[in-house]
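Researcher: Sequence recovery benchmark, item below. Answer with residues only.
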């Protein structure tokens, strides 16, 4: 298996490429090209002001290699979204075919969205789901075609000024998905979105909003890739999820951005009575990742599982984890994290559990494990637990360790090279994590892990 499947670029014709930097003129250009409704224009301009005023994060990984003034913030690959796969420009269609997107669509998906640069270029949903009232559309279309639903929830889970990069995303966003699942509808097959960055020195800013009505179910999967360049690029996304009474949402993300990309995302869900939110994340690529999916358990009996894997190799810094806020009684959360640091990489778990007064009989379990593959790598853990309700239970477990030299020697005595033995130990360490994730996700993640281990310790 070769990284070449992901590490390629195409010579695409673009209908619009902005000048480097972000200002009000850029906001006006984006709004004009997208024909934004006025309420979106107002949000963009307010968000720009917030972004300019907010400071850069003073904690976490070093972002000094990211020059925000040098980035190209908006690249428009096509003037019109394709209605069928064959309508896509040949170079874009070729890109996604090499990544296996059409094949996945035919095999096991209920719907597919494909984003190239700053725009969703293709969206499709099975007719039987469309007839049940399921909406799966690009965010750009949704704000115009479903304004009443979108406006009710847009920006209500992640405030515009939550942080500098969420504000930036609200200002210049393009693409992303809008999903609405009606009351009682359960999607047996997942919806899938693929985000592809093709150029160098660019920023992509997608906005995803998922609304699962009462007693519904959805499994949403996203995959992100980019070719390797020497110049830094930025991906800053905002994800908002609404899980209504008795509904269940699984949000799965496979992050394989190239190692020149800063991946800085804000992902948050609000879960009501008896609802359940599952976050599953695999962070394998990027130069720097900051990703902490958060669940606000605001209804009695609401629950969440946050499961994350990070693999940091070379100069990578993967700073990830999860957050659970217990606001209502009888709420439950589990946060499990596995980190691997190798070949000089740095992996960090950063998470928070908050139990408010009145959230009686709430329970939370946190488990974070780290494996350090060699003496040049490092791992860190920053757990925060704030408990204001006596009638609650919060448990935290953590382990960190290096590869056992005796185990390494034993495996090598069976005829394997040291690099092969190290790869085998790391694969074994990750096995219990892989057993807990959906099969359709595990196939892609295993492929990426195999490539990473081959490159790093092979």
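Model:
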């Amino acid at each position: 298996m070769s990284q070449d499947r992901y590490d390629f670029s195409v010579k695409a014709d673009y209908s619009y490429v902005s000048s480097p930097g972000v200002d009000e003129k850029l906001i006006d250009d984006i709004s004009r090209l997208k024909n934004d409704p006025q309420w979106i224009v107002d949000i963009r301009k307010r968000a720009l002001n917030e972004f300019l005023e907010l400071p850069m994060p003073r904690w976490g990984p070093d972002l000094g290699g990211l020059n925000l003034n040098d980035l190209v913030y908006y690249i428009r690959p096509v003037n019109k979204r394709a209605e069928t796969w064959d309508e896509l420009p040949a170079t874009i269609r070729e890109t996604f075919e090499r990544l296996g997107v059409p094949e996945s669509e035919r095999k096991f998906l209920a719907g597919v969205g494909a984003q190239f640069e700053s725009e969703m270029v293709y969206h499709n949903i099975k007719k039987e789901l469309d007839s049940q009232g399921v909406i799966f559309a690009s965010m750009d279309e949704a704000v115009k075609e479903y304004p009443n639903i979108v406006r009710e929830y847009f920006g209500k889970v992640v405030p515009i000024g939550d942080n500098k990069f969420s504000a930036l995303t609200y200002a210049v966003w393009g693409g992303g998905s809008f999903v609405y699942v009606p009351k009682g509808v359960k999607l047996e097959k997942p919806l899938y979105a693929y985000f592809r960055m093709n150029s160098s020195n660019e920023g992509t800013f997608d906005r995803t909003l998922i609304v699962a009505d009462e007693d519904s179910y959805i499994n949403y999967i996203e995959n992100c890739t980019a070719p390797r360049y020497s110049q830094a690029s930025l991906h800053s996304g905002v994800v908002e999820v609404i899980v209504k009474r008795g509904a269940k949402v699984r949000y799965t993300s496979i992050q394989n951005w190239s190692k020149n990309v800063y991946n800085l995302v804000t992902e948050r869900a609000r879960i009501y009575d008896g609802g359940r939110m599952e976050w599953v994340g695999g962070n394998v690529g990027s130069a720097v990742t900051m990703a902490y999916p958060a669940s606000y358990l605001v209804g009695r009996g609401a629950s969440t599982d946050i499961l994350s894997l990070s693999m940091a190799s070379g100069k990578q810094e993967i700073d990830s984890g999860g957050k659970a806020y217990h606001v209502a009684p009888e709420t439950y959360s589990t946060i499990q994290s596995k980190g691997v640091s190798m070949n000089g990489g740095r992996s960090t778990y950063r998470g928070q559990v908050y139990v408010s007064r009145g959230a009686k009989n709430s329970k939370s379990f946190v488990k974070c494990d780290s494996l350090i593959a060699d003496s040049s790598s490092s791992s860190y853990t920053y757990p925060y637990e704030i408990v204001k309700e006596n009638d609650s239970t919060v448990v935290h477990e953590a382990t960190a360790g290096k590869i056992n030299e005796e185990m390494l020697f034993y495996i090598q005595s069976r005829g394997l090279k040291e690099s092969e033995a190290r790869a085998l130990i790391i694969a074994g360490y990750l096995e219990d994590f892989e057993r807990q994730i959906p099969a359709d996700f595990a196939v892609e993640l295993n492929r990426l892990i195999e490539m990473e281990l081959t490159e790093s310790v092979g």
